[in-house]
Structures are given as structure tokens and as C-alpha cells.
Design brief:
Strand order of the largest sheet: 8-9-7-10-6-11-12
Distance between the termini: 64 Å
Oligomer: single chain
Order of helices and strands: EHEHEHEEHHEHEHHEEHHEHHEHEH
Strand content: 15-25%
Helix content: 40-55%
Largest sheet: 7 strands, mixed
Shape: globular
Number of strands: 12
Length: 290
């Protein structure tokens, strides 16, 4: 059984502890502290420490005598390795599960190598999947989450959304069954209609992408983003990288990409903490911008 310490002086800590008790899948014991001096007297060690910054500062001056890998601060502002109290609690759950999973497999370096990369064009690009597949290697997966899907009558992201909403425990098996394969690359087409993506709740996205990262069925994952998916804050938090498809010949597209890159690159703006870059449509298709 895992042990998790929650150190926070107010009702927020009580709600957080209650949420973790009902949502962590592993057997867990939550130790709740509201007073720093009581926490200091506790001799029982824990696997994860979730401590309010002021709570920790009052007792340790900000230097908590535990391994940093076991420590998650509750902060007022978003940061890469800690949890902001204004984020959805599912984000904290993901952080905890990642830390608990690493030592039991002995393959933390392998899991860390798995990346989820989003590719986004603010102007609908029918060849978005083909562009992504030029970056992919055998064993990689492309998930279509564009606003407009293919005319092909086959399984697509709409079907996967159905199983995500059901919390299908065999979701990775379902995904492998519906994914099409081309030269060792796997892909699932975008939904017929973007409303299927809007029906997924933030908790749905958290559940699915946590499973996708934890089970590591595919080497790397590329997500073709439409405007609906790219605008989803919870989804963006799971992306390690976002590639924007810019254009030298389309002034509106170029202006949008410039603004979005600035927004995503500002660490205080968004849930996205990865790398953002741009590629030029004219270079991809060997076109002249004039």
C-alpha cells in the first residue's frame, strides 16, 4: 500500500485528500496534516508528499528534507513540476501516478522517452496526417482529432470517444483494433464531426491520455489537432510538443501562428509546458510563397 502525505492548513487540503482517496487506482493511505509542527513530529515516511508552499516554508524555510522526486508543492502559480491549486485535480492525479509507476517497472527512462506531439494548422489542412507521418517511425501512432474527418467509412476517433466516455478498461486494446496500419505506422482517422470531441470532459481526456502514456502501447504518439482540440486546455497539458503549420503566403495564418507560439511559450499562460515550434507549409509541399 502506498502512503501519501497532504500538508495544507485549510479546507482545500481536506477536499484534495478526499479526491485522491476515491480516484487513485492503487491501494493508498492518505495522511492529512493541517499543522506543520504536527507533520514534523510524524516519523512515518511516505511515497509522495503534497505540501502547500507556505505550509512547508513555515516549518522548513522552503527546504523540505525529502527527495524532490517524492515532493509536489501546492502553488499559487502554474509551474512544470508542481501543482497549482487552480488546476483541475486530475492534473495532480496524473503527477502522482507517474511517480508511483516509475519505481515499480524499473523502466522510468523508457517511459520518459515516450512523447505526445500535437500538429496544428489553424487553416484546415487535408494532408495533416500525411505531414505527421513523415516525422513518424515504425511503432508510432497518429490520432486524428481534427474538426473534419475523412470520407472513408471505417473506425475513427468517434468510435474511440465512445469507449473513452464509457471508461472502457480495455481502451488500449480497442485502440489497437481500430487503428489502421501503413508501413509500420498506426493511425486513427479524425471523427466525422467535431462534436464528438466536445462531448469529452476534461476528466475524460485526463483518463485517456494517462492510460495512453502509462501503458506505452505505442512508441510515440502524434495528435492531429483541429481548432476544437487545440483549444482544449486539458488536452494541451498532456502534449510534450506542439508543431504549428505556418504559411508565408497566408497572412492570417501566419499572424495566428505567431500569436499562438507566443502564448504557448509563456510558461505562466497555459497548462501546456512543452516545446512549441513552427514549420512552413510552403517548405513541406515545396511550394512558392509568391
Amino acid at each position: 500500500m502506498y502512503r501519501i502525505v497532504v500538508g495544507e492548513p485549510g479546507e482545500y487540503g481536506n477536499r484534495l485528500a478526499g479526491y485522491l482517496e476515491t480516484h487513485i487506482r492503487e491501494p493508498v493511505r492518505i495522511l492529512r496534516f493541517t499543522q506543520p509542527e504536527v507533520f514534523a513530529q510524524c516519523e512515518e515516511s511516505a511515497d509522495i508528499y503534497i505540501l502547500d508552499e507556505m505550509f512547508a516554508g513555515a516549518l522548513f524555510g522552503g527546504e523540505v528534507p525529502v527527495d524532490r522526486e517524492k515532493l509536489i508543492y501546492i502553488t499559487e502559480k502554474e509551474s512544470g513540476e508542481d501543482y497549482c491549486r487552480y488546476q483541475l485535480p486530475g492534473r495532480l492525479l496524473e503527477m502522482i501516478e507517474e511517480r508511483l509507476a516509475a519505481p515499480e517497472t524499473g523502466k522510468s527512462a523508457s517511459k520518459a522517452a515516450q512523447k505526445v506531439c500535437g500538429l496544428f494548422s489553424p487553416v484546415f489542412e487535408p494532408a495533416l496526417r500525411e505531414i505527421a507521418m513523415t516525422c513518424m517511425e515504425p511503432g508510432d501512432l497518429y490520432l486524428g482529432m481534427e474538426d473534419i474527418g475523412s470520407a472513408e467509412k471505417s473506425s475513427n476517433m468517434s468510435d474511440l470517444c465512445y469507449y473513452i466516455r464509457l471508461r472502457e478498461e480495455r481502451i488500449m486494446q480497442r485502440l489497437k483494433e481500430m487503428a489502421r496500419q501503413e508501413q509500420g505506422l498506426f493511425y486513427v482517422e479524425s471523427p466525422d464531426f467535431y462534436l464528438d470531441l466536445l462531448e469529452l470532459t476534461p476528466e475524460d481526456y485526463r483518463w485517456f491520455f494517462s492510460k495512453l502514456k502509462k501503458e506505452s502501447v505505442f512508441s510515440h504518439v502524434y495528435v492531429g489537432l483541429g481548432c476544437v482540440a487545440a483549444g482544449n486546455r486539458e488536452l494541451r497539458s498532456f502534449l510534450n510538443r506542439i508543431i504549428l503549420l505556418d504559411s508565408r503566403g497566408n497572412g492570417r495564418q501566419h499572424s495566428f501562428c505567431e500569436r499562438m507560439e507566443r502564448f504557448l511559450s509563456n510558461a505562466g499562460n497555459d497548462s501546456f509546458k512543452g516545446e512549441c515550434s513552427r514549420i512552413w507549409r510552403e517548405d513541406v509541399f515545396h511550394e512558392s510563397s509568391g
